[in-house]
Amino acid sequence: MSYTAHIDTFAADNLPPAELQPEFLFELPELQFPQRLNCAMELLDRHVAQGRGDRLCIQAEGVRWTYAELQGQANRIANVLTRQLGLVPGNRVLLCAPNNPMMVACWFGVVKAGGIAVAAMPLLRAKELSAIVEIAQISHALCDEALRSEVQGAQEKAERLQKVLFFNGQGDAADALEPLMRAASASFTAVDTAATDTCLLGFTSGTTGVPKATMHFHRDVMAVCACWPVHMLRANADDVFIGSPPLAFTFGLGGQVLFPMSIGASMALLEKAGPAQLVDGIERFGATVVFTAPTSYRVMAQQGERVRRTRLRKCVSAGEALTASTRALWKDATGIEIIDGIGSTEMLHIFISHREEDARPGATGKAVPGYRAKVVDEEGREVAPGTVGKLAVQGPTGCRYLNDSRQAQYVSQGWNLTGDAYLMDADGYFVYQARTDDMIISSGYNIASPEVEEALMQHAAVAECAVIGVADSERGQIVKAFVVLRAGHVASDALVMELQDFVKRQVAPYKYPRAVQFVDQLPRTATGKLQRFRLHEA
């Protein structure tokens, strides 16, 4: 390991023990990183130094920044952090904002200064923010004015959070970032960090309700840029990236910031990115690549003809399982094949995926170049093709929880166990079954929730659905479906029976939902991911 540039060694001091970390793979030539590496220099400064500073980098409502302009903003922020707020390399900085240009500038300012960026979802409340502050021991924060009340609430709960500035506000308040930026230099030499210095803490929800901080190095950021986007997405410098996931979600950070900047392309940022706003944004900014969840694709498909008239050419899905019906619906509506993928905050981004021409309905794909994947049993032994088991992954990135005993649950025998149940077919395609704790076992039968959901989604009355297993004294568990109806359909006992009979005709009869509950909406996270645990509480 090369010598750290961090003066504050909190991150290094709280890495998991070496024996609990996964095995890391650097088999591709492009993964041979130098010992000294600052990813902000590679993603931003490199383009300016090589004469591409005038290229468009960021678009948003009322904003167009070139690479050189983003560099100037990030440099000013780095100067404010180090000269006004006393940041030293290794300090953690909370970033809390919707997807907007200042959020990106702050991320690069922190990383250039040798700090560790800790982005939080903009919908988090003070209690949740204060938990993040305590776990990561954060003393600095750069946050959007729109989130002031929650951030200040977190300050009251977490006394260590003292140095806070707000941006995108009105006027020259004492705690406003922009006036300090105007007085700061637009030049800043990025800290000469080690490739193995932590630059990013990504928080992910835990099953116990206590969030976990995943630790990612400068080399990890560059590794994900060298694997999935190069081999699977195959975008180019003229592409315009857009999406719905918050930048605090690594799916959003990679897809909307890291990946376009790694190739000198541009991003279009939307503070609100529901399906309607996303279609508007694709039109307005001439977006060619979109990142969003299956739920959004289902809704946007209703405007397929409008989408066909835009420049959109590549569509990426992750965050939850992409059903065959959603894939077919989107392609019929727009003519575009969705690129599916599975990733995780622990792994930083997508590690199993496919190219458009290799897409197979119902399958996620194969291991992304740079990664290995297999399906294992409870003892970690690889199982035969067609057998359902636990997904295990290795690659240039992997799970490192910050001082968390749950590290041993995610990493076993050098492999990352993602918590997903998969099977690998005879052709080497990985086919999603369920989360490992979502697999329903009823009367000895293994039933995957997505398979029942897929069957229900074929019914004309069903707008959305989610399936879980609930305890049953006779069968161990039974299948229960939560169903959101389309307009014009009314909940009734007769409709319950109709749906049950319909499912029996779609899949093996033992998989039908013995219980059906109609709901107005399904519980989802800010990124659109289904919260199955809340269904268990219903």
What would you say this structure looks like, in words?
- With 538 residues, the chain is an alpha/beta fold.
- Among the domains are: 38-192, Rossmann fold, CATH 3.40.50; 438-537, 2-Layer Sandwich (GMP Synthetase, Chain A, domain 3).
- It has 18 helices and 25 strands.
- It has a nine-stranded mixed beta sheet, with helices on both faces. Strands 16, 17, 18, 19 and 20 form a five-stranded antiparallel beta sheet that branches. Strands 4-3-5-6 form a four-stranded parallel beta sheet, sandwiched between helices.
- Helix 2 crosses helix 3 (67-84) and helix 5 (126-136) packs across helix 6 (148-157).
- The chain is globular and about 70 Å long.
- It starts with 9 loop residues before the first helix and ends with a helix.
- The model has no long low-confidence stretch (mean pLDDT 94).
Q: Would you kindly provide a brief summary of this structure?
A:
This protein has about 550 residues and is an alpha/beta fold.
Number of helices: 18
Q: Whole-Å distance between the termini?
A: 49 Å
Mean pLDDT across residues: 94
CATH architecture verdict of the domain at 38-192: 3-Layer(aba) Sandwich
Task: Describe this protein with a few key phrases.
538 residues, alpha/beta, Rossmann fold, GMP Synthetase, Chain A, domain 3, nine-stranded mixed beta sheet, five-stranded antiparallel beta sheet, 25 strands, globular
List the helices and strands and how they pair.
Elements: H1 10-13, H2 39-49, E1 56-60, E2 63-66, H3 67-84, E3 92-96, H4 101-112, E4 116-120, H5 126-136, E5 140-144, H6 148-157, E6 163-167, H7 177-182, E7 198-204, E8 212-217, H8 218-226, H9 228-233, E9 240-243, H10 250-262, E10 266-268, H11 275-285, E11 289-292, H12 294-300, H13 304-308, E12 314-317, H14 324-334, E13 338-343, E14 350-353, E15 366-367, E16 372-376, E17 389-394, H15 407-410, E18 411-412, E19 415-424, E20 430-435, E21 440-442, E22 445-447, H16 449-457, E23 462-472, E24 476-485, H17 493-506, E25 515-518, H18 532-537
Helix pairs in contact: 2-3, 2-4, 3-4, 5-6, 8-10, 11-12, 12-14
